[in-house]
Amino acid sequence: MCGPAETRVTHFFMTKTKQTPTNFHALGLSPQLLAVLERLQFKTPTPIQHQCIPVALEGKDIVGIAQTGTGKTLAFGLPMIQLLNQNKGQGLILLPTRELALQVDEVLHKIGQKFGLRTAVLIGGASSYQQIQAMRRQPNIIVSTPGRLIDHLQRKNLSLEKVRIIVLDEADRMFDIGFAPQIRQILSFAPKQRQTMMFSATMPKAIAEMAARFMKMPWRIEVAPAGTTIDQTEQEIFIASKEVRSQLLEKLLSDNSGSVLIFSRTKHGAKKIAILVRAMGHSATEIHSNKSLPQRQAAMAGFKSGKYRVLVATDIAARGIDVNDISLVINYDLPDNSDDYVHRIGRTGRAGKTGKAISFVGPEQRMAVKQIERLIKKTIPISNLPILPPRRFVKIEDKIMPRTRTGQARSHKPFRRQNRNFRRH
Question: Span 233-421: which CATH code?
Answer without folding.
Answer: 3.40.50.300
